[in-house]
């Protein structure tokens, strides 16, 4: 496990295992439009139930790890 994986898991301990879009905004420090853009583009995988969008916390961590890996290239 790399340092970034350990750090992101420690940062997000106060969040539930499945979060809503508002939580995603807080986790990443982004606005509503960008949060929905990340979801609709598939960069952050989610589960949709009718009008509800649920995001497994691990998917947010995976997104950050993927972003970090791209930065290293």
Detailed description of the structure:
With 73 residues, the protein is α+β, with helices and mostly antiparallel strands. It has helices spanning 3-11, 21-28, 32-40, 57-72, and strands at residues 18-19, 47-49, 52-56. Helix 1 packs antiparallel against helix 4 (57-72). The longest helix has 16 residues, at 57-72. The relative contact order is 0.20.
What would the principal axes of the Cα set say about the shape? globular
| Average pLDDT level | 88
Portion in strands: 5-15%
Largest sheet: 3 strands, antiparallel
Low-confidence stretches: none
**Strands in their spatial order, largest beta sheet:** 1-3-2
Q: What's the alpha carbon Rg, rounded to whole Å? A: 12 Å
Order of helices and strands: HEHHEEH
User: What class would the helix/strand composition place it in?
Assistant: alpha+beta
The CA-CA distance between the termini, in Å, is 19 Å
Total strands: 3
Helix share bin: 55-70%
How many helices in DSSP terms? 4
Can I get a quick summary?
With 73 residues, the chain is α+β, with helices and mostly antiparallel strands. The chain contains four helices and three strands; from the N terminus they run αβααββα.
Secondary-structure blueprint:
Blueprint: H1 3-11, E1 18-19, H2 21-28, H3 32-40, E2 47-49, E3 52-56, H4 57-72
Antiparallel strand pairs: 1-3, 2-3
Helix pairs in contact: 1-4
